[in-house]
């Protein structure tokens, strides 16, 4: 096992890290026993995940870190056959069934699984460090599930930059995170649009009490309504949305408060340090300097785009976004955007439903807020009818009591 | 399979029309073309019936037929439920 020290990765070693209410630093986090390499470290709390990451940064061991709930028995077996020893939350180690030489410095990520079973993507601390410019002092919220690309993005800012504190939010704290964030002076937070919608829906006043200067959204299509709501609550904060994935890394970063990205970005001159964006058919294609191992060249993202004036909107996954209603095609993402723009709607999911005569019809699940009083499906149908072609209007609308959210902070929209 | 009564199907048909900002005439012989009940509306009605039944209607069973009036729609849905 190598003991190569990665000093460049530890500039933030004295940054504050708040876990379970305790204020520590990266350096004073509890130490894990010497980990095998390669190791898949399965955790049930954020502190253990950070400790595993620091161990990796110091020793250069080959590491995959993930919550134990995301790695089922079948996947554990697969990892063992790929040379990983499995380290369980209680510290028990199941040795790898395949012995192989470690890839020193390799960090493995599991994709979120939104497109099927989670895949393993190889990175290094360098390829996961996409924020390299000096940052103003900040305290970051860390609500993401350990081991996801978004989690790595936030923790790498804290580990590689001075004055970038972290406040870890465990899954059982997600409902009350604004109170915890306000208590610890969180000034920057990154979350999915679902995460932000839930926070506004549950208690907008508590959210507004967090002294946020930087708000970041990613992981799901970002619509104008959520950007506007956040701007209303935090008029002085910088609001950014990021298109990032385990495969292509952080490839699109938009700070102008608008949904989508400028169309002119599709014509940018090639630059080896900057992701190249293009469109094939309706699909977003990216060549990224932040890509995972083996993904060099153009990556077909599977995400569908739609032009809206001088903007390019990312509306959703190609295989689920397009709904064919009797030969007329409509984007679920566009319909969702119309529903979300209704002032009484806090969250919406739009999907195809099998129907006679037309094959598929547009259906929706909706969570309303109480700003306009009770809302009926007729109100939403009429709202959509004046903004969409008739085949794009959701004909069956189900009202849910609360916004559903998965461990990845997404809601399958 | 349980079934949705003809009167209830008529009520559901009225709900489809109301959602579109129109109303359903009381006369079963009213022409669908005249009242603006289109294929999308018929499909929505079928989904509403399926939701009440908590089961899918079997559209493969009945033969092709002309559906021109409100009464034809009610007959057809009745026939689908007994198929």
Automatic annotation (TrEMBL), chain A:
Regions that span the bilayer: none
SUPFAM superfamilies in UniProt: Acetyl-CoA synthetase-like
GO biological process, one term: fatty acid metabolic process
GO molecular function: medium-chain fatty acid-CoA ligase activity
Domain of life where this protein originates: Bacteria
Pfam families attached to this UniProt entry: AMP-binding (PF00501), AMP-binding_C (PF13193)
Keyword Ligase: yes
Residue intervals of the AMP-dependent synthetase/ligase domain: 94-260
Keyword list, A-Z: Ligase
Domain AMP-binding enzyme C-terminal: 338-408
Keyword Cytoplasm recorded: no
InterPro entries: AMP-bd_C, AMP-bd_C_sf, AMP-dep_synth/lig_dom, ANL_N_sf
Family: Belongs to the ATP-dependent AMP-binding enzyme family.
Name the record gives this protein: Long-chain fatty acid--CoA ligase
Classification lineage: Bacteria, Bacillati, Actinomycetota, Actinomycetes, Propionibacteriales
Automatic annotation (TrEMBL), chain B:
PROSITE patterns reported in the protein's UniProt record: CARRIER
Domain of life: Bacteria
Signal peptide: none
Domain Carrier, chain residue ranges per copy: 3-81
InterPro entries recorded: ACP-like_sf, PP-bd_ACP
Name of the protein in question: Acyl carrier protein
Provenance organism: Kribbella antibiotica
Lineage, highest ranks first: Bacteria, Bacillati, Actinomycetota, Actinomycetes, Propionibacteriales
């Amino acid at each position: 096992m190598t003991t190569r020290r990665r000093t460049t990765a530890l500039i933030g070693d004295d940054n504050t890290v708040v876990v379970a209410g305790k204020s520590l630093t990266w350096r004073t986090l509890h130490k894990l026993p010497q980990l095998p390499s390669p190791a898949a470290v399965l955790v049930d709390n954020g502190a253990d995940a950070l400790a595993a990451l620091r161990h990796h940064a110091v020793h250069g061991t080959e590491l995959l870190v993930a919550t134990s709930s995301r790695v089922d028995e079948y996947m554990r077996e697969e990892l063992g056959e790929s040379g990983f020893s499995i380290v369980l939350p209680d510290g028990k180690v199941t040795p790898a069934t395949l012995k192989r030489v470690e890839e020193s410095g390799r960090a493995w990520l599991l994709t979120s699984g939104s497109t099927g079973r989670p895949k393993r993507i190889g990175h290094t601390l360098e390829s996961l460090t996409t924020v390299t410019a000096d940052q103003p002092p900040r305290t970051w919220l860390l609500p993401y599930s350990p081991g996801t690309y978004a989690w790595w993005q936030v923790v790498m800012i804290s580990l590689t930059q001075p004055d970038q504190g972290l406040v870890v939010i465990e899954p059982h704290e997600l409902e009350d995170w604004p109170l915890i964030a306000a208590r610890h002076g969180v000034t920057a937070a990154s979350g999915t649009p679902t995460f932000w919608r839930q926070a506004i829906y549950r208690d907008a006043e508590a959210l507004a009490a967090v002294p946020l200067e930087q708000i970041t959204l990613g992981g799901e299509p970002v619509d104008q309504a959520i950007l506007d709501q956040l701007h209303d609550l935090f008029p002085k904060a910088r609001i950014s949305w990021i298109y990032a994935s385990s495969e292509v890394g952080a490839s699109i970063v938009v700070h102008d408060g608008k949904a989508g990205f400028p169309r002119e970005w599709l014509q940018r001159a090639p630059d080896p340090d900057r992701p190249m964006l293009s469109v094939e058919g309706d699909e977003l294609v990216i060549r990224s300097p932040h890509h995972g191992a083996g993904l060099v060249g153009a990556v077909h993202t599977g995400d569908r785009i739609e032009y809206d004036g001088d903007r390019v909107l990312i509306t959703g996954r190609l295989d689920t976004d397009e709904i064919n209603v009797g030969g007329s095609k409509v984007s679920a993402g566009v319909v969702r955007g119309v529903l979300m723009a209704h002032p009484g709607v806090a969250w919406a999911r739009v999907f195809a439903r099998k129907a006679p005569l037309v094959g598929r019809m547009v259906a929706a699940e909706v969570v309303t807020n109480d700003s306009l009083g009770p809302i009926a499906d007729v109100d939403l149908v009429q709202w959509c009818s004046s903004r969409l072609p008739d085949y794009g209007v959701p004909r069956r609308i189900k009202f849910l009591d609360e916004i559903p959210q998965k461990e990845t902070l997404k809601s399958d929209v | 399979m349980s079934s949705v009564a003809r009167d209830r199907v008529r009520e559901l048909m009225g709900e489809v029309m109301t959602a579109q900002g129109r109303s359903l005439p009381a006369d079963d012989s009213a022409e669908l073309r005249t009242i603006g009940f289109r294929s999308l509306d018929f499909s929505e009605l079928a989904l509403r019936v399926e939701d009440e039944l908590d089961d899918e209607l079997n559209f493969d069973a009945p033969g092709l037929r002309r559906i021109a009036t409100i009464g034809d729609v009610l007959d057809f849905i009745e026939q689908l439920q007994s198929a």
